Prior knowledge:
The chain is about 75% helix and about 0% strand. By secondary structure, the chain is mainly alpha-helical. It has one domain (about 5-345). Helix 9 packs antiparallel against helix 10 (about 245-260). The longest helix has about 45 residues, at about 305-345. The chain is globular and about 60 Å long. The model is unreliable at about 1-10 (pLDDT under 50).
Amino acid sequence: xxxxxxxxxxxxxxxxxxxxAIFGVIVVHVGQNSLPSLFxxxxxxxxxxxxxxxxxxxxxxxxxxxxxxIKTSNxxxxxxxxxxxRIIPLFVIMAIIYFYLDDKPxxxxxxxxxxxNPSAYNNIEGGWSIWNExxxxxxxxxxxxxxxxxxxxxxxxxxFVSISILINFRFFGIINDSEILLDFDYLNxxxxxxxxxxxxxxxxxxxxxxxxxxITYFFIGFIIKYFFFNxxxxxxxxxxxxxxxxxxxxxxxxxxxxxxxxxxxxxxxLKYLSFLGQKTYTTYMIHFLIIRLLNNFNIQYVxxxxxxxxxxxxxxxxxxIEKYTEQIWSSIxxxxxxxxxxxxxx
Length: 346
């Protein structure tokens, strides 16, 4: 197998995994907004782990792109410009939409610290996961710089686990809404960070790092849960630290399975899904609005029929608007980078 073939295949299996990640998210939200399933019961709830699958893929692909970029340009500004124009414009557009739809305070939705504020991190529906992505991109160059240090990769998971535990004990006392805080126990960046690391070190092949985060999150998380929140041992509320590494490893196994099976003729058609897998950011952000629209028109069928209807709608609309929600902004970022490079040479 040539290097070119391997590179193409590698991109394919990540994009295919992205498709299944967004499909999982769609499945769970359709299940919550449809009539009961004829065949699957509540199995649609497993679709929520599509978000952790996204986090692992983000960790892996950012490692790939950054590892290549740092060896060629060694310029952090270029990295951040690309990330900014990849994510921020659509995120701001969604903040404007939810300002008009739900009267969510616009600036409170986009302030840099809103993603760690339980009263604001989900002002944009599904925004919690995008905040986690943004925070990961923000600190990734630092992580990359020190990822070869064993001391760093013992201290950092201990630090993030400690912050997550303080959140569980309501140490920060930001708000009093218990329902929002229970969600925040699981959805906050510090609890989810292990998923990104699993993606990074899957490709970086630093198995000490991978084991350090997985073991720290699992054992400390389980001990805290067992001794302080034992009556909620099997749910994510009041501590999900020991769940996230297990979810991450399961999702990693799913990615590896895709990588292996697309080599076989029976599964080669899966590669056609990579086209849709490249457009998942737009699909993710708009699918909440489409579900809301269908609910407003009281369009509800049994889960299986509803899933077919909304999945077709999601992807058709994504294909139509992705040029304006993502491509145009990425193009602007690219032009800025080109001008910056030219200016740097003069």
